[in-house]
Design goal:
By secondary structure, the protein is mainly alpha-helical. About 50% of the residues lie in helices and about 10% in strands. The chain has 5 helices and 2 strands; from the N terminus they run H-H-H-H-E-E-H. A two-stranded antiparallel sheet has the order 1-2. A hairpin with a 3-residue loop joins strand 1 and strand 2. The protein is globular, with a radius of gyration of 12 Å.
Length: about 90
């Protein structure tokens, strides 16, 4: 888990859903100077680990596992390891 991953989970935990474009334009991520492409890459890795769900083409939402991680009830080390070749 990287700081960006945790910020993405926090944001998705506060919202129903979001897209990489919307996230890149949010002040929280603008101040981190994170590109839309980097956000998309990290969301795909989080989806591969089961912490976010990918709805449709570019819409992401937090999963129960992601919410449990934010609440301190889940150790990310116990989640499936994302495999970059599976990330689209």
């Amino acid at each position: 888990m990287r700081q960006l991953d945790e910020r993405l989970l926090e944001h998705l935990g506060e919202q129903d859903w979001s897209t990489p474009r919307m996230l890149a334009q949010h002040p929280r991520f603008e101040e981190m100077q994170v590109s839309r492409g980097r956000i998309r890459e990290r969301l795909q890795m989080l989806a591969d680990a089961g912490l976010v769900g990918r709805e449709h083409e570019d819409i992401y939402e937090i999963t129960t596992w992601g919410q449990l991680y934010l609440e301190g009830e889940l150790d990310a080390e116990n989640q499936p390891k994302p495999r970059p070749k599976r990330v689209r």
